[in-house]
Amino acid sequence: MRILLLGKNGQVGSELSRSLAPVAELVCLGREEANFMDEGALVALVKHHNPDVVVNAVAYTAVDKAETDEDAAYQVNAIAVKALAEEAAASKRLLVHYSTDYVYDGQKDTPYHESDAYGALGVYGKSKVAGEEAIIRAAGPHLIFRTSWVYGSHGHNFGKTILRLARARDQLRVVGDQFGAPTNAALIADVTSLILHQYALNPGAFKEKTGVYHLVAGGKTSWHGFATALIEEATKVGIALNCKASAIFSIPTHEYPLPAPRPINSCLSTQKIYTSFGIIIPEWTYYLPRFVRDLKEGEFRES
After folding, report:
1. Residue 195: which domain range?
2. Does the pLDDT value for residue 275 go beyond 60?
3. Residue 117, class by beta-carbon neighbours within 10 Å (0-12 exposed, 13-18 middle, 19+ buried)?
4. How many domains does the chain have?
5. Does any domain span residue 214?
6. CATH value at residue 129
7. Considering the entire predicted model, what is its pTM?
8. How, if at all, do strands 94-100 and 142-147 pair?
9. Distances in Å between the alpha carbon of 270 and those of 134, 225, 282?
10. What pLDDT, in 10s, does the model give residues 178-205?
11. Maximum separation of any 2 CA atoms in the chain, in Å
12. What contacts 87, CB < 8 A, 6 or more positions away?
């Protein structure tokens, strides 16, 4: 089996480059090689490599910038995805694609299920909805994994930002009334690898498994809770910070206004992924020590 990974240098793509290597022959391409601004060239690239599986880890994820850069957001998240989906369907390739909790409005009191109605609030979320709908309309074999609150050792994310700020400041104010499950990119990559290993063993069985799945860590916290846990873990392993966990103050969303609206509830049920693939998703705290350890050995290494 051959897998074509698009977006090898991104937050999730970097981890997929690792996790997918033992599963199949793996071809990894970055944005400079896979141009999502030119869907014709993108389709030609896929045909050239002729994979059994296309894993799309490319996305326009600048949530606030998307509010004034709508064309680019839709080009990457919807138009190029539509071209990928139609090519994959015509060639009977499995398309693996990553989506987001931003397809929902966040007003539900309980975790969202895959069957819940769309309700995207901003341009980013709406562009991701359009991408999902394009894949579903193409009617080829596909797996759409909705993720949320993604962080990891690569790229820009909340976890790294908090630790940088905690190194520079003696107190922080973090939103405490938005809830979700911080999801390490390594978890997303590991689960993707497990599922594609199942696919390699029995591709025919996946005809009934095509669809949308929530792929997030277990449990629930707020951004304030996540920040506090990060600082506590970093302090435990000896990363020098100016801000202690007790100096992180919880604030309401309205005290930290941003251009794009955020879902208040980003909790997603993962029951379907367990029922379909037998995969048990760990709690969000499980990957936290690994993340902090990686940063201590890298960006936060003391000279």
Report:
1. 2-157+182-219+266-284
2. yes
3. exposed
4. 1
5. yes
6. 3.40.50.720
7. 0.96
8. parallel
9. 23, 21, 11
10. 999 999 999 999 999 999 999 999 998 8
11. 56
12. 43, 46, 47, 93
Does residue 111 lie in a domain region? yes
Closest residue by Cα to residue 78 from 37, 118, 112: 37
Spatial distance between the Cα atoms of 249 and 228, rounded to a whole number of angstroms:
9
What is the tens place of the pLDDT at every residue in 47-105? 999 999 999 999 999 999 999 999 999 999 999 999 999 999 999 999 999 999 999 99
Residues whose CB falls within 8 Å of the CB of residue 44, separated by 6 or more in sequence, listed in order: none
Residue 155's pLDDT is 86
Q: Examine residue 228 and state whether it is found in any structural domain, yes or no.
A: no
Q: Are the CB atoms for 174 and 162 separated by under 8 Å?
A: yes
Of 116, 94, 43, 77, nearest to 209 by C-alpha is 94
- CB count within 10 Å of CB 24 equals 18
Please report where in the chains the tokens 């940063």 appear, as a residue: 295
Separation of alpha carbons 228 and 123, rounded Å: 30
CA distances from 42 to 10, 58, 63, 83, 88 (A): 18, 12, 24, 8, 12
- Render pLDDT for 99-148 as a digit per residue (tens, 0 to 9): 999 999 999 999 999 999 999 999 999 999 999 999 999 999 999 999 99
| Catalytic annotation, pick one of 124, 199, 213, 287 | 124
User: Which tens digit of pLDDT belongs to each residue from 143-173?
Assistant: 999 999 999 999 889 999 999 999 999 999 9
Give residue 159's identity as a one-letter amino acid code.
G
Cα 52 to chain centroid distance, Å, stands at 22
Structure tokens at 75: 């080009």
Residue 245 included in any domain: no
Confidence grade of residue 302 (pLDDT, cut at 50, 70, 90): low
> Is 124 one of the annotated active-site residues of the chain?
yes
* Contact yes or no for 143/97 (Cβ under 8 A): yes
The SS3 call for residue 268 is strand
Q: According to the model, what pLDDT value does residue 142 have?
A: 98
